[in-house]
């Protein structure tokens, strides 16, 4: 009996870990694909940017700030109609990816914008003096120079998404959070809750270590 129970719990842990990995990886990837261009736009249109446009910058920046300032649990519930349209359901791993992505994109955008601010403006001016186009400045100057900061920002985003994915699990999103709530809390199995916390700690440490390694490699090019 105990062997069967242990095997069942190991299978649940493996499934839940995979669901968490999928949620974090997919939402992080899509969030980066949306957030990086958005961050570049915010930097280019900001005061002193090469495409300075205060109206566009303030408008887009206001939307980004509004989404960022919305608590994740509220966003999770508020966009249930959108989630159902996109995934056909409001529960499960696929459904959780939608609010996680919407949370990640503006977060990434602001971190990318901050990283781009650190690029020496003299490099941009030098590229402009040589006749470089805006796209050339972005792809050959701004992004390469800011890449260590961007990778550090993406690492922070993935760590944050891990915590949010556990929160999503509390209301049916699947993953380790769901496992901890259903078995650790509702069924009074503290060992399961402790194991979930330990697995999440290791998971976050692995993400942070990989991100730090990538930043060091890019910084020493």
Automatic annotation (TrEMBL):
Q: Name one GO cellular component term.
A: plasma membrane
Which SUPFAM superfamilies does this UniProt record tie to the protein? MetI-like (SSF161098)
Indicate the transmembrane segments per the record.
20-42, 63-83, 89-109, 150-172, 192-215
Q: Which Gene3D superfamilies match?
A: MetI-like (1.10.3720.10)
Q: Chief location of this protein? A: membrane
Which keywords belong to this entry?
Cell membrane, Membrane, Transmembrane, Transmembrane helix, Transport
State where the protein is found.
Answer: Cell membrane
Cited CDD domains: TM_PBP2 (cd06261)
Q: Where's the ABC transmembrane type-1 domain?
A: 17-211
Which Gene Ontology terms describe the biological processes this protein takes part in?
Answer: D-methionine transmembrane transport
Do you know which PANTHER family this protein is assigned to? ABC TRANSPORTER PERMEASE, D-METHIONINE TRANSPORT SYSTEM PERMEASE PROTEIN METI-RELATED
Question: Per the similarity annotation, which family is this?
Answer: Belongs to the binding-protein-dependent transport system permease family. CysTW subfamily.
Name assigned to this protein:
D-methionine transport system permease protein
Which organism is this entry from? Giesbergeria anulus
């Amino acid at each position: 009996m105990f062997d069967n129970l242990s095997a069942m719990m190991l299978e649940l842990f493996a499934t839940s870990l995979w669901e968490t990995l999928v949620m974090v990886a997919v939402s992080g990837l899509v969030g980066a694909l949306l957030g990086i261009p958005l961050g570049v736009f915010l930097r280019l249109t900001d005061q002193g940017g090469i495409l300075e446009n205060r109206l566009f910058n303030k408008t887009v920046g206001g939307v980004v700030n509004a989404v960022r300032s919305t608590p994740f649990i509220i966003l999770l519930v508020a966009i249930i109609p959108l989630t159902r349209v996109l995934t056909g359901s409001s529960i499960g791993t696929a459904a959780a990816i939608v609010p996680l992505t919407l949370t990640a994109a503006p977060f990434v955008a602001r971190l990318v914008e901050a990283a781009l601010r650190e690029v020496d403006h003299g490099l941009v001016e030098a590229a402009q003096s040589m006749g470089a186009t805006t796209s050339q400045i972005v792809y050959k100057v701004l992004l390469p120079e800011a890449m260590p900061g961007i990778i550090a920002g993406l690492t922070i985003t993935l760590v944050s998404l891990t915590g949010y994915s556990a929160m999503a699990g509390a209301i049916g999103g699947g993953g380790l959070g769901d496992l901890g709530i259903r078995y650790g809390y509702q069924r009074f199995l503290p060992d399961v809750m402790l194991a979930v916390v330990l697995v999440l700690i290791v998971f976050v440490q692995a993400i942070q270590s990989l991100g730090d390694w990538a930043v060091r490699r890019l910084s020493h090019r």
